[in-house]
């Protein structure tokens, strides 16, 4: 290392720590601590079914979080992913149930709806130049209303496991001799690897980071910033569609009017995992770890007697802490 | 100097209401460093923007490598070999050095970016330029000087033949400037044509071969640097002789009371055991090289940064300054070196800026008394001769010198007795400079006391009644103006301690 470059301490200079990233190691430690904490306090937590429900909860949040990581890295945010996931799940399920179509069509509809939302956000943010927070707050409301209208304002039940159309539920969880195996985790890992490569090793990813780092400098380098800025929101929309499929596969029913607040779980996950609110920095792998922190909290808190309202309070506080740590990190630079 | 590589002839450009360029000529030869000089607003940047296709010219011809050209975008100019190294660096702080250099033209293996081969190419590039930078380091971790080297390397990697440097030394330390000049001389050897925009007269003499001077959007003339004097160039820039002699005698009476005394001040790494006294009606110059700790001292006194130890005595009483609000309450006003970031609200009007530090005197119940605000603002516009159509003008529309006057007005409205001027004329053109100097002289006549931090030797010699020199956070010299010489200051400014 050169002398004009700031030095880290022994921990951050360790080659393994360097390769994985300091923040990810710390988050991994937090996950282990949390799991130990819940296990000690609640014997009921130490069950196989708890692991399954932690994974169940993590699938759709992970997918949302992977998508929103791209929006966050541009220095923006996408608040429409929560209600968007529910809306896509409603519309997809409605199409399957009402027109008696194969479930695969419903899944495609989910993705199409997510992409539509992504295009909507790309137009308002990347093309019209609206502030991302307000623009996606708007599309969050639009998605909530649109989902309810298109699905006819009643709960939507996707085909159940065991029925001919219910095969899609075993994408994420298979029943082996009465025991549920959460294989969805493999899918999430695969997605994370692919999107990590997209972010770090391809031009679109490089330009999305560049936009978040310094948009004007990126533009002056002859790069089409509108195009790549738009792509970040399209990716976020696409993953909203995938999250809808995961949600439908995990839960019995999709209920209109819900979904507000899910985006915060995903965004908190991304930020805990080291994605910067100010853009330019973040990793997909870190996001996945961050989501696991959220997932552990969501699943674990009821075991120590803290119910839904407390979960919301804790989610809010965890989000604030994560953002504060992000600010401290930036201040150090 | 070799053959002519770039000729701009009769370049004319108008914006609504402004004739920005009036038939300007510029000729650059291979292997020459060509200074482009002029006051702020003379049209240097506009001319360079026309060259690189950011603006479209109305009239005139650009001949590059023997062919008439008209670039339509910086990218097109870049591809042809004409590139600007910007004053504000266009860096992507989150990406690595190599990723920055090759942004927009990444080396690929199939669909994936090949960072290893980019690192290797960057390393070879740096070796060619004798620059020592690790291509895998994050851009944001480098010093400003190193970042600029990366910009230059990027320009070279584009096979540039004409390079424009826009005030390249503004943010560099002395040693970085030396390194930069070495590289520029090296590029001259390699037969590049270099356009060098700078306000620093001593640099022009040091590094350039010819000087083209612009004034008010027009072409004034071109000189050989070697055979012309500073005065020749300044005369061409302003159209009048303004170069003034240094002060020879302090204007402060020997029995002037001490208004501010700082005893053994320590703050952070950059302020170590600093002590000094400021007298009523005195201009106390703070000289030193960049990074000597002068601004940090000022910020500590002003409460902008925490004080570790030491005593500040104002008017005979020890005061505890924990925030700028405390400092202002004790009658200290601070004019930041970075006006736009810390000194002024550019999107607000002259009147609003003038009263910003003393708004509680302009309240009618819970509302701001706009009438009184305007009256007071007008009074100071008149007194300071601020050039503005009205006090309702947004500050962003004023020139640098007039913005500085608005900041001064802000502290005068607040009745500050001690004013700290941090680089008062940085980025201000020569004409407005002498007005600011005049103003400072009037302020001390009114009984105000001024601490003036300046990196310009001529400014220190011309304005100060007494000079304090700092080096690496310590006070290394204090002298009355009668005994000051450039050599004495430089000697103290480089007096490093173990």
Automatic annotation (TrEMBL), chain A:
Topological category with respect to the lipid bilayer: Multi-pass membrane protein
CDD domains, alphabetized: TM_PBP1_transp_AraH_like
Cellular compartment(s): Cell membrane
UniProt keyword Transmembrane present: yes
Segments passing through the bilayer: 25-45, 57-74, 105-130, 181-199, 231-255, 267-297, 309-328
Pfam family, one: BPD_transp_2
Keywords: Cell membrane, Membrane, Transmembrane, Transmembrane helix
InterPro entries named among the record's database cross-references: ABC_transp_permease
Record-given protein name: ABC transporter permease
Species in which this protein is naturally found: Ohessyouella blattaphilus
UniProtKB/TrEMBL annotation, chain B:
Keyword Cytoplasm: no
Residue ranges annotated for the ABC transporter domain, each copy included: 6-241, 254-497
MF GO annotations: ATP binding
Gene3D superfamilies in the record: P-loop containing nucleotide triphosphate hydrolases (3.40.50.300)
Superkingdom of the organism of origin: Bacteria
Sorted UniProt keywords: ATP-binding, Cell membrane, Membrane, Nucleotide-binding, Repeat, Sugar transport, Translocase, Transport
Record flagged with keyword rRNA-binding: no
Pfam family, any one: ABC_tran
Protein name: Sugar ABC transporter ATP-binding protein
């Amino acid at each position: 290392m050169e002398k004009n470059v700031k030095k880290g301490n022994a921990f951050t200079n360790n080659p393994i720590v360097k390769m994985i990233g300091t923040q990810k190691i710390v988050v991994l430690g937090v996950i282990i601590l949390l799991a130990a904490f819940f296990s000690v306090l609640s014997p009921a937590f130490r069950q196989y079914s708890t692991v399954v429900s932690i994974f169940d909860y993590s699938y759709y949040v992970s997918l949302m979080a992977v998508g929103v990581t791209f929006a966050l890295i541009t220095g923006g945010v996408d608040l429409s992913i929560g209600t968007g996931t529910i809306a896509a799940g409603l519309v997809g399920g409605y199409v399957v149930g009402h027109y008696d179509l194969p479930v695969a069509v419903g899944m495609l509809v989910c993705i199409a709806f997510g992409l539509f939302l992504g295009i909507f956000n790309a137009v308002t943010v990347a093309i019209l130049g609206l502030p991302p927070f307000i623009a996606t707050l708007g599309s969050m409301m639009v998605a909530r209303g649109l989902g309810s209208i298109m699905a006819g304002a009643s709960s939507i039940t996707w085909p159940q496991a065991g029925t001919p159309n219910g095969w899609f539920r075993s994408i994420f969880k298979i029943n082996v001799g009465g025991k549920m195996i959460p294989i969805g985790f493999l899918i999430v890992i695969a997605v994370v690897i692919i999107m990590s490569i997209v972010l770090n090793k391809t031009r679109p990813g490089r330009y999305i980071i560049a936009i978040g780092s310094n948009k004007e400098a990126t533009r002056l380098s002859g790069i089409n910033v509108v195009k790549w800025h738009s792509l970040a929101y399209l990716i976020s929309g696409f993953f909203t569609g995938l999250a809808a499929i995961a949600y439908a596969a995990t839960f019995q029913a999709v209920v209109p009017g819900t979904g507000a607040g899910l985006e915060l779980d995903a965004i908190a996950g991304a930020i805990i995992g080291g994605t910067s609110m100010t853009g330019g920095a973040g990793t997909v792998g870190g996001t996945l770890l961050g989501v696991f922190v959220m997932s552990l909290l969501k699943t674990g808190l009821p075991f120590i007697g803290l119910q839904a309202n407390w979960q919301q309070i804790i989610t809010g506080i965890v989000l604030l802490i994560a953002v504060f740590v992000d600010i401290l990190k930036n201040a150090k630079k | 100097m070799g053959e002519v590589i770039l000729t701009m002839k009769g370049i004319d450009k108008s914006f609504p209401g402004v004739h920005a360029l009036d038939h300007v000529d510029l000729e650059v030869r291979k292997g020459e460093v060509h200074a482009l000089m002029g006051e702020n607003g003379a049209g240097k940047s506009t001319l360079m923007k026309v060259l690189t296709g950011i603006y479209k010219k109305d009239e005139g011809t650009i001949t590059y490598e023997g062919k008439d050209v008209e670039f339509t975008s910086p990218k097109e100019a870049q591809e042809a070999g004409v590139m600007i190294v910007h004053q504000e660096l266009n860096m992507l702080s989150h990406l690595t050095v190599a990723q920055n250099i090759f942004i927009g033209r990444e080396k690929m293996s199939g669909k994936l970016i090949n960072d290893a081969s980019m690192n290797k190419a960057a390393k070879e590039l740096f070796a060619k330029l004798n620059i020592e930078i690790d291509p895998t380091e994050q851009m944001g971790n480098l010093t400003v000087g190193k970042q600029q080297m990366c910009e230059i390397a990027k320009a070279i990697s584009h096979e540039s033949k004409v390079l424009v440097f826009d005030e390249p030394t503004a943010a560099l330390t002395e040693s970085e400037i030396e390194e930069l000049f070495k590289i520029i001389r090296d590029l001259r050897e390699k037969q590049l044509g270099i356009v060098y925009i700078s306000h620093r007269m001593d640099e022009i003499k040091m590094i350039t071969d010819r000087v083209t001077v612009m004034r008010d959007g027009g072409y004034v003339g071109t000189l050989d640097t070697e055979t012309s004097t500073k005065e020749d160039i300044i005369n061409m820039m302003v159209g009048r002789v303004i170069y003034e002699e240094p002060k020879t005698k302090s204007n402060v009476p020997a029995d002037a009371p001490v208004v501010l005394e700082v005893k053994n001040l320590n703050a952070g790494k950059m302020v170590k055991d600093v002590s000094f006294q400021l007298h009523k009606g005195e201009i106390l110059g703070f000289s030193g090289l960049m990074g000597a700790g002068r601004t940090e001292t000022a910020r500590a006194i002003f409460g902008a940064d925490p004080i570790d130890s030491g005593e500040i005595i104002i008017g005979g009483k020890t005061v505890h300054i924990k925030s700028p609000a405390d400092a202002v309450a004790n009658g200290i006003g601070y004019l930041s070196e970075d006006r736009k970031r810390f000194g002024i609200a550019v999107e607000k009007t002259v009147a609003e800026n003038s009263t910003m530090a003393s708004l509680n005197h302009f309240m009618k119940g819970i509302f701001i008394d706009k009438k009184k605000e305007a009256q007071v603002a007008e009074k100071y516009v008149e007194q300071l001769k601020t050039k503005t159509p009205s006090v309702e003008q947004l500050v962003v529309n004023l020139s640098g010198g007039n913005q500085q006057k608005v900041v001064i007005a802000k502290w005068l409205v607040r009745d500050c007795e001690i004013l700290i001027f941090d680089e008062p004329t940085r980025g201000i053109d020569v004409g407005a400079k002498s007005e600011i100097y005049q103003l400072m002289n009037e302020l001390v006549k009114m009984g105000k006391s001024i601490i003036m931090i300046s990196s310009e030797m001529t400014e220190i010699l011309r304005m100060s009644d007494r000079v304090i020199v700092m080096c690496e956070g310590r006070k290394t010299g204090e002298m009355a103006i009668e005994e000051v010489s450039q050599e004495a200051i430089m000697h103290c400014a480089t007096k490093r301690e173990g």
